[in-house]
TrEMBL record:
It comes from Trypanosoma cruzi (strain CL Brener). Signal peptide: none annotated. Residues 1-276 form the Protein kinase domain. Pfam families: Pkinase. It comes from the Eukaryota. This is Protein kinase, putative.
């Protein structure tokens, strides 16, 4: 397909490190077009090597819990354009901001199940998401949440923002794994249930550390990871009104030892979307 982009970005450039545009094909199909800056590592690769990494993205099978990559365009020498499925509800963070209050528990249960299906699909193919956060979850008009941002082998080649939805082992410099994706899902679920970010000062932090200091820390990826490595942060408590199934999922996802966390496929057996 040949895609023509909108004149202006559709997302606030101040909150994105890559411009995002609406795109439309000759037949009227809508898509999202995102322009990424390539890293120094990508600049040292041949065009064929960059293409091979990007083709891996295009090779992901269609799944109703994932945002589909449609095509890409390499823009020498330092940029690449990714064309993705258009999901009109925007990101989960944007939807939460517009809604302005805690999400209904039924909607949270349904969509945790959707994200588990998406992660199980990726992990079953040996693929790690590695960047699960509210900005990388899109919301369809029917309310279904879909994962995006799976850069796969292209991750070291494309500049992207780091988030605070990471496990202690990744903050310590460890490799991103399926267990890290599960931990990030737990943090995301916690944020949806508490209507806030998922971290608080731990008992190891000074008693006078304030919420304002915490907010500043979370805005600085390097400082956040150092604080997490040093044991100064811990996930916030699970809200008292959380039902037993979601509480079980949270406890399992947020286990400290990666080997103690169940797989996304195993967590699906808890049937988060089942109503009591």
């Amino acid at each position: 397909n040949v895609w023509k982009r909108s004149l202006n970005p559709i997302e606030d450039p101040s909150t994105e490190n890559a411009p995002v545009y609406m795109a439309i094909s000759a037949t009227g199909t809508l898509a999202v077009l995102k322009v990424y800056q390539l890293t120094d590592a990508a600049a040292r690769l041949s065009r064929a090597e960059v293409d091979a990494a990007l083709e891996e993205l295009m090779g992901l099978r269609v799944n109703d819990s994932l945002v589909q990559y449609l095509s890409y365009c390499y823009v020498p020498p330092h940029r690449v354009v990714l064309v993705m499925q258009y999901v009109p509800g925007g990101t989960l963070r944007e939807m939460k901001s517009r809604y302005g209050r805690k999400l209904p528990l039924t909607a949270v249960r349904r969509n945790v199940a959707s994200m588990l299906r998406g992660l199980a699909h990726l992990h079953g193919r040996g693929v790690i998401h590695g960047r699960l956060c509210p900005e990388n979850v899109m919301v369809g008009v029917e309310g279904r949440w879909r994962l995006k941002g799976m850069l796969l082998g292209a991750a070291p080649l494309i500049m992207h923002q780091e988030t605070y939805y990471v496990s202690p082992e990744v903050a310590a410099g460890g490799a991103k794994t399926a267990a890290n994706d599960v931990y990030a899902l737990g943090l995301l679920l916690l944020a949806m249930l508490t209507d806030s970010h998922p971290w608080q000062w731990s008992a190891n932090a000074a008693l006078d550390r304030s919420r304002k200091e915490l907010d500043s820390l979370l805005a600085d990826s390097t400082a956040f990871r150092e604080a997490l490595r040093n044991g100064l942060l811990t996930p916030v408590p699970t809200p008292a009104d959380t039902d037993e199934t979601l509480r079980t999922v949270l406890e399992a996802c947020l286990r400290t030892a990666p080997g103690d966390r169940p797989t996304a496929l195993r967590l699906q057996e808890l049937r988060c979307d089942r109503t009591s």
